[in-house]
Each structure stands twice: as C-alpha cells, then as structure tokens.
Amino acid sequence: MFVSDKNMKDLIFHYLKENETSISGLSRMLERDGYKVHRLVLTGYLKALSDVGMLKHKEIPPSKVYTVTSNSDKSIYDAVRDKCRSLEVDDKDAATISCYILQNLFRRPIFLQEIRQFGFGDTVLAKRITGEERSEARKKLTQNGFRLPINDPAYLVDREKDYEEVMDWVLHMILIEEFKAQGLLMGPKQTKLEL
Length: 195
Prior knowledge:
Layout: H1 5-18, E1 21-22, H2 23-32, H3 39-51, E2 55-60, E3 63-68, H4 76-85, H5 91-106, E4 110-111, H6 112-116, E5 127-129, H7 131-143, E6 154-156, H8 164-178
Antiparallel strand pairs: 1-3, 2-3, 4-6, 5-6
C-alpha cells in the first residue's frame, strides 16, 4: 500500500508519541498496520524529519532511535497562547491580545473558532466583522482546510487600543524560544502588562 507524505508523517508521529523507536521498530509497526514502506525510504524520511527539527534521534548501538521533539506539534495558536498566559492579565484581555496579534500576522479578521483555540474563553474585546470582509477571510481559511461553522463570527480588535508593544514582545519571545536563544538576551523580562 502506498503511503502519502502527509499520512506517513502522521503515522510516524503517532508511533513515536508513545515511545522512542528505532527504524526497525517503526518498519515493523508500519508493516503490522498494513503499510509496506522500504526501509531505505523510511530511513530517508526519518532523517529529513530530524533535519527540520520535527524529530530528534540518538545512537543506541547498533540502532538509531527516534523520538518526537517537544515543539513539533505546536501551532501558532499554541505559541501565542503560551506567551499571552505569561502576561499576568485576565482571560478576556489575553484573548483580545491574542486576537490582535493574529489579525496583524494574518492581515484579516479572526474567527471565534480560532479564538477558542487559545483557551481563554469566548469573550474578546473586539468589533464583530460582517459582510464582504468576513466572507473573504472565511473563504481563505476554508481553502486552506480550516473548518469553520457557517455562522462563526469574525472579529477585529480596535486599532486605537495600543497593543503594539505587547505584540512585539510576544512575537520576540516566540522567536527567542523557537531558536533557543534565551542565553543571548540582555535586560529584564516583561511579564506584566499595564492596560
């Protein structure tokens, strides 16, 4: 049976989330579940996933054992949520700041379904968007596989509310953590936002 790239990655992540496994072990698991993949193809695929940082490996002679890296399944929503949680603000403000950051990154209104992914609740201090602007944003998301309820509201945080400084800090910290560059930072860490 042929395994497409997306299915192959999903299968590998499924197997490796439970335990670290060698190439031979992964090959046996795939075969057990009805996927016939040549061992050299699997080896190359694992090396590629390791090279891009999605997997890590260690040598346990005579095998090479692979495991999933801690941040490989982290989405932009997870990264923004984690940083906004550290701001010491209430959930409504954290949801609003998160919405503001995404609307600036994606240059579009943010849907309630997306806001819920932050885990701060459904309340956001933002203007509800309707009409053509909402329709265009919904169309873009659905084209890219994001499922939205047909009547899901979309929001834009008022640009008069100044979240620029906190947005810069959140995005800065996400990049610093992604590239493990904390040791290069100089200066105090801001954790409290004055609203």
